[in-house]
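Collaborator request, handled under Task 6.
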Amino acid sequence: MFRSCPIARLGIIGGGQLARMMIPAATQLGCEVVILDPTPDSPAGQVASAQIVGHFDDADSLRALAERCDLTTFDIETIATEPLLQLAEAGHIIRPAPELLALIQDKLHQKQRLLDAGIATADFIALDEPDAESMLAFGLPLVQKARRGGYDGRGVAVFTDAVIEDRVLPVPSLLERYVDFRCELAVMVARSTLGEIRSYPVVEMVFDDRANVLDLLLAPARIDAGLAARAQQLAEQTVTALDGVGMFGVELFLTRDGQLLVNEVAPRTHNSGHWTIEACRTSQFEQHLRAILGLPLGDVTQHSPAVMLNLLGEADADGDVVIDGLDEALALPGVAVHLYGKQTVRPYRKMGHVTITAAELDIALGIAGQVRAALKIGGSSPATTTAKINELNHGTEPS
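Structure tokens returned to the collaborator:
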């Protein structure tokens, strides 16, 4: 098959770190990239062919991007889907499909689709007007999730005792049965326009309790081969049930009695797939492009054990970015540092990540500890921690 150059003019809605890391893969494949983001000189806009400065819910900005490009994708889920549905109906190619994005944006509808498809997940009910009495009637312990807008622990509250009135999220929600899990796992799954599907090795996720954000990721997960195969199969079934096209992050619980339950699905590249850049034959970013462009999917073989460490803003960080310990971290073996180009820092804001590859996972873990001790992302002025964490918890950065 003959193709012209550029292979495609690709539009990305969202100019954060996910789009930034997708651009080198797009350039390698001969694509031009245009970003839509409300922040001038966004992390991805710094390295893209062009950036349109506009909001994700602005129909005119979304139309300008779609009309300028052959194909549009996104690195964030908080997008107005009605304009995207209209653009798709007018013939513009948007992948993953706007219908699927709209479904996943509503966590209740997402869970109902999984349930209808026979995908194992925690028991749940809808709660349009949350109140303590209804939640206690559901039974403790439980998890309340806002139907819309939550990610990285935002819009999520865990209740283990009856003193809950002051912590109820006052938004339409779903209540989930609390899962007593052994660990949290994730599988990155790619599905192409032709239905070809491939999943990466299962990874193990460790979260930072202070902000409920991914802290450390181990690839592969420390589980046996049979369990890993079951997790990959469940993740692939999930993406197939959603009729997804592109890259999907499928988050799973492994219960103490050995069950696998799907927690949530992200219809995009994902924080739990960053390690693939250094440790796999094909990165999640190249794979996403292959999937949405209708190209053959790449080899998902992992060639090195890897640990990924998120670089978060320090607890008192505020103002302009101040990086300490970069030289020390880069001097360590197997270390790849990714800084996202964000100009300001907040407590626990994702500012970058580090992937460490080594001959054995335990060696990579040891080096990750040295990186954590050396590399810090602070700010030019101290933060009022409570206020800044509240601001972060209402933000819209993708994972």
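The cover message to the collaborator said: "The domain at 123-177 is CATH 3.30.1490.20 (Dna Ligase; domain 1). Confidence is low (pLDDT under 50) at residues 385-395. Please let us know whether this matches your experimental observations."
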